Amino acid sequence: MRHLPRGCLLLPGALPPRLDSHPKSLLPLVKCLALLPNSWTRIAFTNNPAFTELMLLRSSPAPLNMWIPDRWKHNLNEIRNLGLQCRRCHTLSVPHFALFTILPQFNGSTTLKFFKLSGTGGDLEVVPRDLIQSLLRCPVLTHLEISDCVLSMEKFPAIPTLKTLKLVSLGKQKRGSIKALHKALSSMPELEVLELKKVFHMHPQPSTILGPRAVLARLKDLKVTNYTIGPISAFLSLITIPSTAIIAVDVSGHDVNKEQALLEFMPALGTVCDDTRSSICTAGALKVAAIRLERLASGTSIRICFWADATSMEDGEQPEMVLAIPSVPIPFLQAKLQGAFWMTDIRWLSVDDWVKVDQAEWTSLASLATLVKITFSGDTSIHAFLLAMTSQDVPLPNPPPFPALRELAFDYVRFNDPSIPDRILDAIKARPMAYRLTKLRIKRPQKFRVDILQRLRELVDVDWEESPINGIC
Fold it and tell me: How many domains is the chain built from?
């Protein structure tokens, strides 16, 4: 096969324009490939509808992979019986305007496993009832995506075979939308991936609905994005998922009372997991060993990443949970996190670019009795941390702040304040011998003084990676 003409590999069944440039011994094989239905199943939409019809004809009766381009409007109606041909699809992705061509001929499929419908966000791009009924007649459909179209949750189909469901921007919803979604999800026991992006009403909705939670026992990945926290809290209080599922919550707008919204959100998040048998779950709450704080570019939101195993964070593995929420004071956030999660064994805290934590906030974090490692990345507030680390408010023989701390790491940090390296040295020297740091990592810094580096190496094991330019001054 590796000696076949390139044109045959790019478009099976289409003969290259210059057959005489290839070995004649391959011509019979090329012609045989052109006669195989499976060589024509990835349907191409070009300016020549006759060629598309030829592919549809030659591919019969094999299942099709059909992706109608978003910008391909011309000549679509010239393809005869396109809706009937869609019934042969294994994969079908269509823009909203194509529905006027394929319906009502496309009224179900015994082979369709993947269906994607995309619009442009216009108020007139309504998901028609005929399509909903057609999808209900697809007995092996496992993947459904609908984005930027108008679809009321009250009309959303409950398809029990779905394993992946992605809904994005379905227009303004009524206040009963969460209840309707709850009802549909209750009939989807095989669901493994659920992604909901801006599908809820912007105003808070009642979080109590009569009846049991929707149990998504096979769910592996949950992503929820909304303008405000209230509807997310209501939704999470209506579902139960395994503790092993990866959760991502992103609040892209601003709640008027963000503290009160978080008061309702954290309990809902903490109880969404109901698998107490898992090693990362204790009393229904996610067991957290590592946290990374990141300030989003807007400056008004903070992203929190959670790992159940600190080594997973160090190895760069995907976090078990990611929350992007409005910025709130760290002590308030810490209290709410401890109420929702099992955080008695947290071992690693990472503070990334632009996250400004003041001394009082660091002082509240200093009480974490198992915190072994703290990592700073980029332009973070090291000054306030050093003040909290060297606080004299704790009389001996009580443990110092951050009693379990054994490792500090500074990754890609710009030391614009020339006193910071000296203060790091003083903070390490000031700790009692029983609480001394054992390792210091400084990776590709800027403006770090070489004399301080040499003195640090006399106190602690220093893992140093010099920046390509101006690492030491």
Answer: 2
